[in-house]
Amino acid sequence: MYLAAADRYQRMSYARCGRSGLQLPRISLGLWQNFGGTVPFENAREMVLKSFDAGITHFDLANNYGPPPGSAEETFGRILASDLAAHRDELVVSTKAGYLMWPGPYGEWGSRKYLLASLDQSLRRMGLDYVDIFYSHRHDPDTPLEETMTALDAAVRSGKALYVGISSYGPQTTRAATAILRALKTPFVIHQPSYSMLNRWVEQGLLQVLEQEGIGCIAFSPLAQGLLTARYLHGVPDTSRASEDGSFRKGMLSPRNLDNVRSLNQIAVQRGQSLPQMALAWVLRKPVITSVLIGASTWPQIEECLGALRNLQFSGDELQRIDQHAVDGGLNIWAASSQSG
What we know:
single chain, alpha/beta, TIM Barrel, eight-stranded parallel β-barrel, two-stranded antiparallel sheet, globular
């Protein structure tokens, strides 16, 4: 029988989503790659429960997370039912809809029909009555923004979501979405973009919009899908995702990127941190960043990332040295959405 650690809230710091009342842990757990039906359930369970013991209260999912699609939500639902049911009100559970989930014209993008049907399916898979945050996973250029935003509003008004968010929207579309949701009095509290030392597109207007509008920001892929770890300092392991050329494209491992990663690693060592710890601290340095989303395949990886919270301060000299190597590495594979406005 699972008993949560009594000191879990002393082990984590929390921050508000913009000007809302919702607080998130500075480090949140994303269930994208290693929580589906193809991985051992007990490993997923260990990561979730030990994360909760460490004060991670936010677990981020999407309808298509797996593999296969939907299976990450099913796995998380099992963990909720067996271990975390008594702690439901301590958790922030988020899910999203936007990418391909089922065949036909209603199985992806941003129509009202797709978004609300997807949310119902997600709730069934997780065994929940509501999620805390429901996201539009990507901007749909062929559906009126008003339709997508009013679907998010309907999710809240139906009691199936407490808050709403958007992911990978560009600055202009984000500002337009904010205006629509504010007029509807919908609790729009958070934007989830990709952001890392090697993928800094959000600094070109989006973070400014979020700060002005009072919207929180939770960065995904802050470790550049593993590139900002020790994994690739000495070549590409046979077991890495890069060797499979899937969501992590081999082209990301360019000589220029690898040289920058090695240089950043040297700065991290001088700070007394591992490279992933410094990479997370660097993203969290900006006040508009509420939380960072990490992915992991084992608990020790999560534990290492939590060590970033021990040193979140950077000197001006450190930031200047980092900027020499924290340059765009062609890693924004979600650019089609983020550059659409």
